[in-house]
Amino acid sequence: MFNAHRFRIDRRSMLKSSLSLLAGGAVGRVAEAQPEIKNVNLASSPSSLKITDMRYAVIVKPGPSPCVLIRIDTNQGVYGLGEVRDIAGPQYAMVLKSRLLGENPLRIDYLFQKIAQFGGNARQAGGVCAVEMALWDIAGKVYNIPVYQMLGGKWRDEIRIYADTTESMDPAEYGRRAKERKEMGLTWMKMDLGINVLDGIPDTVMRPPGQSNWEQHVQPNLFVAAEVTDKGIDRLCEYVAAVRENIGYDMPLSMDHLGHIGVKSVIRLGKAYEKFNLEWMEDVIPWYYTDLLKEITEASPTPTLTGEDIYRIEDFETLCREHAVDKIHPDLATSGGILQTHHIGDMAFKYGVPMAMHFAGTPVSCMASVHCAAATRNFLALENHSLDVPFWQDLVTGVEKPIINQGYIRVPDTPGLGVALNDDELKRHLKPGAGYFEPTPMWDEPQSWDDALFS
């Protein structure tokens, strides 16, 4: 006897089975096209991750120093490393601790906006940027991917570095030292050359006598009445000529630390240096004099560059939009950290402005810069101040050594920033009297109620 009810049930079961088989086949084909993602750290629980502590260590090395390393700890044992800008104190970072405790470190943009108001130009941004680096390091470790991948992927596998040449009052010796740098494998050079080399040579620099140290080094260039004479310019050109004779013209040569001189002297130097084909003259006057920078840039055949002391992306955009300089030069430990510096590069690309990067710290901040540079299209070269520091690369482990190899740094594919601390080596270079990532309960509570910027 025909059972209509049973037929409907069997037919429904058969359809379900067929659909399941079809769905399974479709999933199988997708799996073949897109391999299973296996790099998520299943030992972590991102949604319940919380910041539990922040500590620091102060490292001393030759060159720009001391350097403050911070470590942000979490409730799941994952930690992140960051670095305060060179020659800045730990207080810039530690004042932020009370704003971070209990927060999920993976909310990077939210936390950056929460602490951004406590940053400022030059070293004042060091704490905010150190925290931002450490948050990216945590995120990379949690998801088991390098930081550059979270920025959209890399444009390059190696990061070109450029480096200063040690100075000499003798042009011939300066040239020989530049040649030694090139023999190290460098493909980009920078020389510090300012009016200090003219000290004691009559009729080379015109300026009022008896100026204080503050006037000569802190007061903006425009207000000290210092101008270089023709004799002074000729002497400065001897140094550049000596360097070019030793390294040739097949590699870029940049210049920094011209000294506190006036706008017209900068323009005259830019014209005198034209024959040496410099890649740029750096920080010729304070960056915030946009119109005067533009005047120099338009009048000088030698390109101009600035940016290592700028914190806000809006200020970089003003320079780029007005084409007040030919190139920009953020220091990631001042310019808002990894993501903001990447945004600065993208913004500058829109205006046709290339981006080099300033850096003078330990391998921790160096690797943060490397990841940013790898993911930023208009990047040129990254500075390094530690070619003569024998223990510099020994401060960290987990990264390919030598870190700087024939003028390049290999972009690491390991999670986060890609480095761990070499505790024994770091302890050998601690600032005298400083501890090594000791507890910091004194920074657990806010020091003032200053989070509200408007009513």
UniProtKB/TrEMBL annotation:
Keywords: Lyase. CDD domains: MR_like. Residues 171-303 form the Mandelate racemase/muconate lactonizing enzyme C-terminal domain. This is Mandelate racemase/muconate lactonizing enzyme, C-terminal domain protein. Coiled coil: none annotated. GO terms for molecular function: lyase activity. It holds the Pfam family MR_MLE_N. It comes from Candidatus Sulfuritelmatomonas gaucii. The keyword Transmembrane does not apply.
